[in-house]
Design brief:
Helices cover 35% and strands 6% of the residues. The chain starts with 6 loop residues before the first helix and ends in a 9-residue tail after the last helix.
Length: 135
C-alpha cells in the first residue's frame, strides 16, 4: 500500500474493479454516550494509579456534543445509495475545521508548542461529561 493512502482508501481502490462501492461516514462529537465512555476506561485499568501522568477522574470528552439525529440520517442515506460521496462528515458545520486540522499536520514542526498543554487536552479538564452543544 502506498504510504500516501489510508487503509480505507486502499481498500476502496482494490474493490472498485468488482463494482463494490465504498463510502465513509466520519462522525463528529455526537451525544451517544460513546465519547464519554471512552473517557471512563481508566476505571478498569489494572495499574497503580499513583504512576499515572494525569488524574483521569478529572478528564472528560473535550467538546460539546451534537444531537445524533442528523448523523443517523446521513448514515442511512449513504447505506441506501442516496448519497454517493466517498467521504461524508457530520455535522457538516465541522467540515472546514476538520480539513484545517488535517492540513495542519503537514506543516507542524516537532518543537511546536513544546512545554505547553494542547488546547484540546485543556478542554478535557474544563468540560463536563455529556455536555450538549448549545444552540
Amino acid at each position: 500500500m502506498p504510504p500516501s493512502l489510508s487503509c480505507l482508501t486502499y481498500i476502496c481502490f482494490r474493490l472498485q474493479e468488482f463494482n463494490i462501492e465504498v463510502a465513509t461516514v466520519n462522525p463528529g462529537p455526537f451525544l451517544t454516550g460513546f465519547n464519554d465512555r471512552m473517557f471512563q476506561t481508566w476505571q478498569s485499568w489494572e495499574d497503580d494509579g499513583s504512576d499515572r501522568l494525569f488524574d483521569y477522574s478529572k478528564l472528560a470528552f473535550p467538546s460539546a456534543q451534537f444531537d445524533p439525529e442528523p448523523l443517523y440520517a446521513t448514515m442511512t442515506s449513504v447505506a441506501a445509495g442516496e448519497i454517493d460521496s466517498y467521504r461524508n462528515l457530520e455535522p457538516k458545520s465541522m467540515l472546514d475545521e476538520t480539513k484545517r486540522l488535517i492540513e495542519a499536520a503537514w506543516n507542524r514542526k516537532t518543537k511546536d508548542r513544546l512545554g505547553k498543554r494542547p488546547e484540546n487536552l485543556q478542554a478535557s479538564f474544563d468540560t463536563e461529561p455529556e455536555t450538549p452543544v448549545s444552540n
